[in-house]
Amino acid sequence: MSEYVRSRIRSVRSVRSVRTPKTVRKAAPRATAVAAVLATLATLGAAFGGTADAVASGPRPAADVYVAPNGDDRAPGTRTAPVRTPERARDLVRKRVPHQSGDLTVHLAPGTYRLSRPLVLDSRDSGGNGHRVIWQGGEGTVFSGGRAVRGWRPVKGGAGLWSAPAPAGLDNTRQLYVDGVRAQRARGPIPVNLTATATGYTASADTLARWRNPSDIEFVYPSGEALWNIQQYGLGPWTEPRCPIGSTTGTTVTMAQPCWDNSTRRVEFPDIPGRSINMVGPAKLTNGALPGYVENAFEVLDQPGEWYLDRHTRTVYYRPRSGENPRTADVEAPVLEKLVDGRGTGRAPLHDIALRGIEFSYATWLTPSSPEGFSEVQAGYTVTGPEGWKTQGLCEYTPGGTCPYASWTKMPGNVAISHGRDIEFSDDAFTHLGAAGLELGTGTKNATVRGNVFTDISGNGMEIGGVDAPQPGSDADLTREVSVTNNHLYALPREYHGGVAILNGYTRDNTIAHNQIDHVAYSAISMGWGGWPDKIGKPATANVSRDNKVADNLIFDYMQALDDGAGVYTQGLTGSSLDNGEKITGNVIHDGWGLGRTVYTDNGCTYVTVQGNVLYGAQANVLSAHVDYRDDLGNNDPTRIVGNYWEQGDPDGNDKGVVTSGNHILADPSEAPADIVAAAGLEPRYRGLLGRTFAADSVPEAPTRVGDFAADGSAYVTWNPSYVEGGDPVTSYTVTASGGSRSVSTTIPAADFKRTAYAVVRGLDNGTPYTVTVTARNKAGVSEVSLPAAPVTPTAGGPGALPGAPTGVKANADATAATLSWTPPKTTGDTPVTGYRITVSDGRTVTVTGRDVLVSQPRAKGMLRVIGKLRPATAYTFSVAALTATGTGPSADVSVTTSNR
After folding, report:
1. What is the pTM assigned to this prediction?
2. What are the Fibronectin type-III domain coordinates in residue numbering (predicted)?
C-alpha cells in the first residue's frame, strides 16, 4: 500500500462518526473509512483504465503521470493516487524525463481542469532520450480558463433581465457562454448622430455621457462592400476595426488612444495622393470615420441572449434565451488569456511533445478592451503602439519606420507554441476561445496538427509562423515542416470577422491538406504576406517562403461576413521558381458569399501553381495577373493555372508569364471529376469529426449587415447570412418592416435566399418610413433580431427609368458549355440591379441572381455565369439584360461557336 493511501486512511480514522449506532461505533469507523478510500481509488483507477483488483493490490511504480480533477497535488501522480492539476503533473514530468526509457504519458482523466494560470511549458518539459512526452486526454477532458458564474437572480423591474455577482478573479472578459453557447455582448445602434473630429466625435446629444460606464463602451466599424444603403465603415472591405471610448463629456466623445489614431490616420506618399505608405486599404476610415454600431453598453442590453459585465459593481447581467434557466445553466466567463503557453527558445526549444484528446476552452483576450483596441489591417494583424500608424512595419518607406515591411502585430493564440520542434496536436478541440485558437509561432518545426476541431473562436482558427522575420537570422527562427491535415474548422471567427480559419506567414515545407473548412466569415486559408509594394511599382518583400502546399481541402460557405477574400488567399513571393513555389492542388472550393474569388493570388504573388482543383460559386475563380516588378521587363508574376474544373473559362494561353492550360468549364457541380471530389476534405477515418459538438443546440446567430431600398409599396432587403447556425442548419429568414403603426413581415426559405440574396417585403404604405430587421430560424428556434438597416420610404412610381445595358459582354466556350462574363450597366435607373436575364439563341432563358450580382454593381466588378447543355461545333448568341425593381433594361449580345469534342 502506497504512503499516499496510508496517509488518506489515517486522515479518515481521525474523523469522528456522529451517526453510527453505539453498538458498532468502535469497529465500524476503520473498516468503513478504509473501504471508502479504496472505493474512491478504485473509481480513479477505472477512469484511467485500471480495475478495482489492481487498485486494491497497490500500484506498481511507473514513469507515467496520472491526473484527475478530484486528485490531490500532494499525491505521487500514480494511477491510484493522481494529482489534481496539469501544472503539478508538469513538475513531476520534469523529474522523470531524465530517466525516460520510452514515451512518458501524462494521463488526463475525463473532467474539467480549471486552470488558475496558463500551463507553461519550456525545454525542461520536452521529451528525452529520443522519446516523447504525451499529454493524453479523452472524451470530456477539458482545459478551461473560465470561471463559473453562479448566484443568478431576476433583476427587479428588469423585465427578463438576470444578474449574478462576478466570480473571484473575473475582473474583465469579452465573452460569456451559457451551456456552451456563446452569448452576444450587448450591442445596438448608435443612439446619436456623430461628427468625426481629430480626437473622436461630437455627438448630437449628451446621451452617451449619461450612460453607465461610458469608458467601457466600444465602437465597431464593420466593413465589407458598400451595398444598397449598407455602409462600409472599416479600413477596407476585409476588416472590422474596434475602438473603445476614452471619455465622454457632454456631447464630446474622446476615443481611446492609440486605437483612434492607429485606426484613422495613415502616412501618405507625398507623390501619390491617397496612397498610404502601408499600401493596404484606404488612407483612413471610410464614411467619415463613423462607427457602425455600439457594443458593451448596459443601455443596449435589450435582447434575449445578450449580456453585460459591469466591472465597477462586479455584476454580470444576462437576458436568457427561451428555455434557459440561469440558476441551473452552466454559465462560464473566460478569465485566462492563454491556456497552454509553450515557451521554447532558439537555443532551448520545446520538443517532442504531444497533446492529444484535450478540449481547450474558455479563454479570452483583453487587448481589444484596452486603449490599444483592435486596429485591424488584415487577417487579424493590427497596428499597435503609440504612433504605430506612422512607423510600425513601414520600414524604408518613411523615416522611423520599423522593419521588416508589413510586420504588424499578430493576434495571439489562446494555445501557443514558440520555438517548438516535433510538436503534435491531435484529436483535440479548440472551442469557446477569445483570440486565435492555436498559434504555432516563430521557430516551430516538424509540427503535426491532425484530427482536431476548431470552432467558436473569436479570431483566427490557427496561425503558422509570422511575418516579423522574413529573413531569419538563424535556422532556429525558421518555421517549417508543419503538417495541418484532417481538421474541421467551422463557424468562426465569431468576434473579429476579418480573421481566417488558417493563417500561414513566412514558412517553408508546410502542408495544409484534407481539411474541411466551412461557414467562415472571411477567407478560409491565407498564405504569405508582403506583396503590397507592387501597388507602387516595387517588388514584394523578399522572404524565406517556399515549398508550401495547399492540397485536397474541402472549402465552402466562406466569406459570409466580409468581402475581397477567397477560399485560398495567397500573397507575396512564395518561392524562387515554379518548382518550389506554392502549390494549390486538388481542392474543392465553392459557394463564397462576398465579393471575391475561390483562389486569390493577390499583390506580388509569384510562382504559384493552381492545378487540378474544382472551383465554382464565386464572383471569380482565380485572380492572377499582376506585374512582376522584380525587373523592368513588364511581365506578370509567374503563375500556372492548369487542369482545373472551374466557371471562369479563360482560354489557354500565356499572358506574360501567367500560363493557363487544360482547364475545363464546369457547367454543373455534378460534372466535376468524382475522384477529385471524393479525395477533397476529411479522409474517411476522420469524418467522425463532423459529428462532434461542444454546446447545446441553440438558435442561429443573428444575420448581419442588413441593407434595403424602397420601391412602389415594397422594400427590397439583403443581408449577410447566419454562418453560425447553432447545431442545425438555418431553414428560413423572416424580414420585418416596421413603420407607422404597423409591421409587415415576409419569410423566405434559406435555400431561396442563398440563390437570390434578397427578399421583398410587399404591402407597405407609400410615404411611410420603414425600418427593416431580419431573424434566422433553425430547429431550435429564432435568432436574435439583427441590427436594423437604415430607414427607407416606399413611394408610388410610374414607369421609371430602366437600367442600361450590361457592358463588356464576352463569351468563351468549350464543346458543351460557355462562360459568359460582363460588368454591370453604367446606369441602373431608379433602383439597383437585382439580377440578369440571359436569353440563349436556342430558346432558353436563364435568370441570374445571387450575392455577387448585388455586390458587383457599386464598384463595377465583373460577373460570370456558365451556360451548359450546348451542342459541339454550334454557333450561339447570348443576350444579357439587367433586372431591377423598375423593370428589365436593354440587352447586350455576344456570339460564340462551341468547339468540337
Report:
1. 0.93
2. 699-798, 802-901
